[in-house]
């Protein structure tokens, strides 16, 4: 099933911009094989990552990413089915955002509890996020 997954996390102090370059290099290396695309958005102290691909592949990747010492307090924002990929060419796009922009993205999912998300088969949730993300990449 084609799905999306989005989370927010806190960049650790050690996670410099050079480390972000390395993360992106790893993603570019691994994600094509996994058929995963998406975007990594970041501020001075936070990450927001949106990934899209096969549901099981995404949960396995998320389990790996959660353990990465370059961030902490990893919190799921949204996951569920999508009709089509928003970033089919991007094995990981990147963009530096202002804090208020990142807040717009996190607020939209903050009222939903994780169990509801996991059982949610409604494509509208993913669609809403896809539309919001598109506004950063016009
Ligand atoms: C914010 C963040 C986003 C990441 N995104 C990806 C990703 O999209 N794909 C990926 O393979 N690794 C990603 N990583 C790196 C993984 O945590 C992990 O280091 C990597 O997958 C290990 O790859 P390897 O098994 O080839 O060494 C990310 C790490 C962080 C901190």
Chain-wise SSE layout:
Layout: E1 2-11, H1 17-34, E2 37-42, E3 46-54, H2 55-66, E4 71-81, E5 93-96, H3 99-107, H4 114-119, H5 123-134
Parallel strand pairs: 2-5
Antiparallel strand pairs: 1-3, 1-4, 2-3
This protein binds flavin mononucleotide (FMN).
Flavin mononucleotide binds at residues 23, 26-27, 30-31, 40, 47, 49, 61, 64-65, 68, 70-71, 92.
Give a description of the structure.
The chain has 138 residues and is of the alpha+beta class. The protein contains five helices and five strands. It has a single domain (2-134), classed as Alpha-Beta Plaits (2-Layer Sandwich). It has a five-stranded mixed sheet with strand order 4-1-3-2-5, with helices on both faces. The longest helix is centred in the N-terminal third of the chain and has 18 residues, at 17-34. The mean pLDDT is 90. The site of flavin mononucleotide (FMN) has 15 residues, from helix 1, strand 3 and helix 2. Flavin mononucleotide binds at residues 23, 26-27, 30-31, 40, 47, 49, 61, 64-65, 68, 70-71, 92.
Task: Briefly characterize the structure.
The protein is of the alpha+beta class and 138 residues long.
Rg value: 14 Å
Shape: globular
Contiguous helical run count: 5
- Integer tally of domains: 1
Strand order of the largest sheet: 4-1-3-2-5
End-to-end distance: 27 Å
Tell me, what is the CATH class?
A: Alpha Beta
Structural class, please?
Answer: alpha+beta
Largest sheet: 5 strands, mixed
CATH topology: Alpha-Beta Plaits
Low-confidence stretches: none
Task: Give me the CATH architecture, please.
Answer: 2-Layer Sandwich
Quote the average pLDDT: 90
Bound molecules: flavin mononucleotide
The proportion of residues in beta strands is 25-35%
Number of strands: 5
Helix content: 40-55%
The helix-strand sequence is EHEEHEEHHH
């Amino acid at each position: 099933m084609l799905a999306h997954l989005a989370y927010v996390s806190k960049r650790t102090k050690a996670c410099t911009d050079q480390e972000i370059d390395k993360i992106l290099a790893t993603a570019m290396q691994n994600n094509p094989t996994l058929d995963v695309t998406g975007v990594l958005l970041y501020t001075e102290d936070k990450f927001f990552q949106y990934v899209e691909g096969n549901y099981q592949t995404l949960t396995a990747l998320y389990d790996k990413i959660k353990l990465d010492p370059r961030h902490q307090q990893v919190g799921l924002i949204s996951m569920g089915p999508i009709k089509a990929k928003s970033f089919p060419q991007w094995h990981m796009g990147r963009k530096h955002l202002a804090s208020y922009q990142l807040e717009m993205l996190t607020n939209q999912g903050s009222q939903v509890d994780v169990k509801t998300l996991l059982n949610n088969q409604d494509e509208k949730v993913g669609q809403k996020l896809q539309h919001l993300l598109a506004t950063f990449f016009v």
